[in-house]
Amino acid sequence: MLRVIEETVEYIKRKTENFQPEIGIILGTGLGGLVKEIEIEHQLMYSNIPNFPISTLEFHSGKLIFGTLNGKKIIAMQGRLHYYEGYSMQQITFPVRVMKGLGIENLIVSNAAGSLNPEFKKGDLMIIEDHINLQPENPLRGLIESSLGPRFPDMSEPYKRDIIAKALKIAEAVEVKCHKGVYVAVSGPNLETKAEYKYLRLIGGDAVGMSTVPEVIVANHAGLPVFAISVLTDEGFPEDLQPFNLDEILEAAAKAEPKMTEILIRLVAEL
């Protein structure tokens, strides 16, 4: 794995004139608009990067963006990878390893998720303060080079509390409603049944999605502080469960995205 990571890192350095990012950002479903706020210096398609998996979703562009956001050098993944696309957990999290190799010091992750908490409504934002991993595989399973991280990484603070506090203060200052909660990761791609939504709420979940946790596990393994935020694009309330509609989810993400973008732009400056 280490050789493959180094090969990819060296390719990216050559193509970006040794661009040195401070912060990595993973943009979730329908949340690629933050790219408009970046002073872009370089762009690389996933398909042109050696060893890099390619996003198979039509609404994920599959591009690495290098530039400046509010005074900080950043690298942004415009389009993430999911377990349900058929990739291994190691492939899904490979970009995090590469961003670490390029020199990032913090990782910001965004996603679109379904609300499990009746007090969290569609269109709200939720900062992730903890997670429950129900995905069937772990990105750290198997042989891992000791230089990449410890065999048994600590997960007592997977999302950095000091960064969460900064983000909540920013949300209050810009008058954006922002909850804190627990994110439950499932494999997908099917949505949950009424009984499953009820179960996920009973075990402590506030939102459910099909991503994020693998990347967060690997970031913690690599010693990267993480901040993660969900745009709640639908509601999984068993008593009033509505049929899944992808267009409505993408529309909800688009409407809520400017609020998330405002918080992230300001947060980047404080990291």
TrEMBL record:
Residue intervals of the Nucleoside phosphorylase domain: 23-268
EC numbers: 2.4.2.1
GO MF, one annotated term: purine-nucleoside phosphorylase activity
PROSITE patterns: PNP_MTAP_2
Cellular component aspect of the GO annotation: cytoplasm
Pathway annotation from the record: Purine metabolism; purine nucleoside salvage
Signal peptide interval: none
Superkingdom of origin: Bacteria
UniProt KW keywords: Glycosyltransferase, Transferase
Enzyme class: transferase
GO biological process: nucleoside metabolic process
Annotated family: Belongs to the PNP/MTAP phosphorylase family.
Assembly with partners or alone: Homotrimer.
Function: The purine nucleoside phosphorylases catalyze the phosphorolytic breakdown of the N-glycosidic bond in the beta-(deoxy)ribonucleoside molecules, with the formation of the corresponding free purine bases and pentose-1-phosphate.
Name of protein: Purine nucleoside phosphorylase
Gene: deoD
